[in-house]
User: Fold these one by one.
Assistant:
Number 1:
Amino acid sequence: KAGVTQTPRYLIKTRGQQVTLSCSPISGHRSVSWYQQTPGQGLQFLFEYFSETQRNKGNFPGRFSGRQFSNSRSEMNVSTLELGDSALYLCASSLSTIRTHGYTFGSGTRLTVV
Amino acid sequence: ILNVEQSPQSLHVQEGDSTNFTCSFPSSNFYALHWYRWETAKSPEALFVMTLNGDEKKKGRISATLNTKEGYSYLYIKGSQPEDSATYLCAFSNNAGNMLTFGGGTRLMVKP
């Protein structure tokens, strides 16, 4: 069974640009969550999508947005990039609830903003 | 703001040693406590999801306990092996939403 696929694996962008990251969940998983990992802050929750609707949102500015398509694939977008957005972005898919089996994570997209 | 603390931050042990680390979380509004293992250059992998006070879970040489009344969980590794070297993350949920607050992790290094 295919795992969670994130593309691209690495990305270098310039301040002020925007970026779109993609995540394809495990087949049958309808929930996709996004996390940001930085050395100083650890893993922080960005948002969760379920059945094409944002179901939960973390404390990130409006420059961070996402969406989910009818096939459960999800994208996240960061506009007007800042140096501090340099991080590893992890996507995690799950069944409706993570209370039984937890998340299955992708390998992440490493974003560097210069 | 939910505070999830893990200790120690890092740990060096010899192959064969048994070890344990701690995760502290808010004791009010508990919903679930997760443990993940994150090996270098790989994705975090779910080890346990614990939901009831007194829960004990085991997977091979790794086990975990949960005390929701006092807000802590212990992860134990018996007879550590070099392949156990990884960062162990705990994560707390206080509601039914699929969102977790992660601790900073404990980095375990097992020397052969």
Number 2:
Amino acid sequence: DQQVKQNSPSLSVQEGRISILNCDYTNSMFDYFLWYKKYPAEGPTFLISISSIKDKNEDGRFTVFLNKSAKHLSLHIVPSQPGDSAVYFCAARVWNTGTASKLTFGTGTRLQVTL
Amino acid sequence: DVKVTQSSRYLVKRTGEKVFLECVQDMDHENMFWYRQDPGLGLRLIYFSYDVKMKEKGDIPEGYSVSREKKERFSLILESASTNQTSMYLCASSSPIAGGSFPPYNEQFFGPGTRLTVL
């Protein structure tokens, strides 16, 4: 049962344009959502996050939007740069007391930014 | 600079062999995690640990075990490797989350991964 879904396995965007990566989830207990970026032969690195009590979080060229009623979040990258070409994973957390909080990851979207 | 290291970048083993994947972090983190990454399936949690000698099953623990004898080291063990365990294995660590109604997110730091091939 895939609780976090990224329905687009790949996306190609021209340099300078906006990249929009989408993510849908089913578990209403998720309280935090994150985006990770992964280059080939490297581990994922944290990019940006949003709490479930917010609907938008911005960090430089990256903005994450959360629509709780639709159980949908998106990552906007403006303007897109060639160095943004990577696989992007959406992840979600259910906070657990007493133990480590787990992340549930989506399947990833490969973004290619072309010149 | 924070660091999570994994013992091997590439590993080739034969079916039935016992395989050890080692992960070391230098950030004094309490939490450590093992994931596998497969095309079309994303990252799936195998096991995690929130303290020395403590472990909890993730979403796909079958065929794996773990060991956490020291805080900085978390080992993933394949008792009898099978071809369906060919995958990219990723280790991560994080610090515990403080209390509160909406605790902040404490980032998971990932190692570079081990590409395991089981023949």
